[in-house]
Amino acid sequence: MVHHTATSVVTIERFIIEQERLHPEATGELSGILYDLALAAKMIANKVRRAGLADILGATTDANVQGEIQQKLDVFANETIVKAVDHGGRLCAMASEEVEGIIPIPEGFKCGKYCLLFDPLDGSSNIDVNVPVGTVFSILQKVTRGRNGEMEDLLQPGRRQVAAGYVIYGSSTMLVYTTGQGVHGFTLDPTIGEFLLSHPKIVTPRVGKYYSVNESNFGRWNRGVQAAVRGLKGDTPDLMPAKNSRYIGSLVADFHRNLIAGGIFLYPADSRNPQGKLRLLYEASPMAFIAEQAEGSATDGDNRILDIIPHHLHQRTPLVIGSRLDVGFVADTVRRAAERTSGPVVQPAL
Ligand code: AFP
Predict the structure, then answer these.
(1) Closest Cα to residue 51, out of 135, 131, 120?
(2) Count of H-run helices and E-run strands, the chain
(3) Which one of 10, 26, 90, 277 counts the least CB within 10 Å of its CB?
(4) Atom 18 in ligand 1: which residue has the minimum CA distance?
(5) Helix 285-293 vs helix 251-261: angle between axes, to the nearest 10 degrees?
(6) pTM of structure
(7) Which residue, judged by its Cα, is nearest atom 16 of ligand 1?
């Protein structure tokens, strides 16, 4: 890693180039995708910031594939990302949380060796009330041989990601990403329109201050999850000191706060969402790559998120993610409860 002095101004472009130089075999294609995503992020940030002013709020008539009402800004963000990356010759296929099937590279454009999966505007039900929203992305290398990317290229376990990141449109706009060499955060300086390196080599605390979960689901969780959340509140002080609670309802914002300050985010399965609510490929997997690169961890309760083999694009998963010891505490508590009710479970928890 290149070391910068505290006073040097490092743009995201410079940082990406310097990282690429560490890999003599790199063709620059991955760097190109990251630049394009940074550009799309600036365009989306610009629109999100003006959302309260422009006549852009309100639901469109389409319900997206998740059956949720799609906000106009979701559509804008989706199109902005597709247009920023589809013609660069670096991607062979895309998939978006907002679109049912594969998004192909249009005829006439070159295809490359990478696939992009993204959630264009996560937490969009929060836009009307001025709460931070975000974009999440995941990049995989193509494994099939044809020109176009296929489902097999997109349905790879998270451990095969070559890059993942998110953009948070909050009190400032930040882009945080990893290519497997640590996690680095950039803050958008709106006066010059550049993302500047503000958080090099983010390492999340081993034990966090916060727990983040939608506790209105408490009565719908299994006993193990209930016991774990009670533990996070201080029920078993010998095992886990009590934590403070923070929950925004926007994954990117909840995850980002916990990444920096230390903490754990949970969206477990419940009786209404037996597979959990969050999407494996657009949310859990990229966040898990970032968490692990920042020395945190991520599990579905039984399995490391990055080891889960996806079967379809919009698959959901329970998610427990954040500070390593906190995630371990929840996984152990859930496992012990499962052993008490149904004998030992086969999968070791983290
Ligand atoms: P929306 O994009 O529909 O607002 O969903 C946001 C989200 O997928 C994720 O960002 C949050 O962590 C989670 O849902 C919040 O879900 P609850 O509202 O059930 O707590």
Answers:
(1) 131
(2) 8, 17
(3) 26
(4) 249
(5) 10
(6) 0.92
(7) 249
